[in-house]
Amino acid sequence: MALLSSTALQRIERETAKYPPEQRQSAVMSALAIAQDEYHVLTNDLMEEVATVLRMPPVCVYEVATFYNMYNLKPTGKYKVTICTNLPCALSGAEAAAKHLIKACGVHGFNETSADGRFTVKEGECMGACGDAPVMIVNNKRMCSFMSNDKIDKLVEELK
């Protein structure tokens, strides 16, 4: 039984069309993001379906999904907020921002989900915006820059 909707399959085919036919597996990151958008979590069955669609071994899809932290291999809250803690962000207050974010989201630490299921806070690697530190990404889609305590409070309130 197919897990991915026809819309998701069409989106994946559009991504594969960007590559030569014999290299359709090059769309694996996009395909995983599309699958995750549909289900919010990448189960083994879903990753196997992506492998089938891309005509590649499932282990290769698993390798990509487990290497990058933008993929959810376990259920997360409605809003996954990832804060960069690499050196440039750390030097610009990311540690204090992370502590404030954790408290504001109602969790006790990284990789935890709030009791109401609304927030999961993750620690992330470089997000390519060192000049905007500290930086956070919401659900892998929305980057938030220069995150002071006030900006964190406003973001959390907006997402509630």
The largest sheet has its strands arranged as: 2-3-1-4-5
Please give the radius of gyration in angstroms: 17 Å
Distance between the termini: 36 Å
Tally the helices: what do you get?
Answer: 7
Low-confidence stretches: none
* Series of H and E elements: HHHHEHHEEEEH
Mean pLDDT figure = 95
Give the overall shape, derived from the CA principal axes.
elongated
Helical amount: 40-55%
Instruction: Estimate what percentage of residues fall within beta strands.
Output: 5-15%
The secondary-structure class comes to alpha+beta
Biggest pleated-sheet summary: 5 strands, mixed
Task: Count the E strands.
Answer: 5
Structure description:
With about 160 residues, the protein is α+β, with helices and mostly antiparallel strands. It contains seven helices and five strands. A five-stranded mixed beta sheet has the order 2-3-1-4-5, covered by helices on one side. The mean pLDDT is about 95.
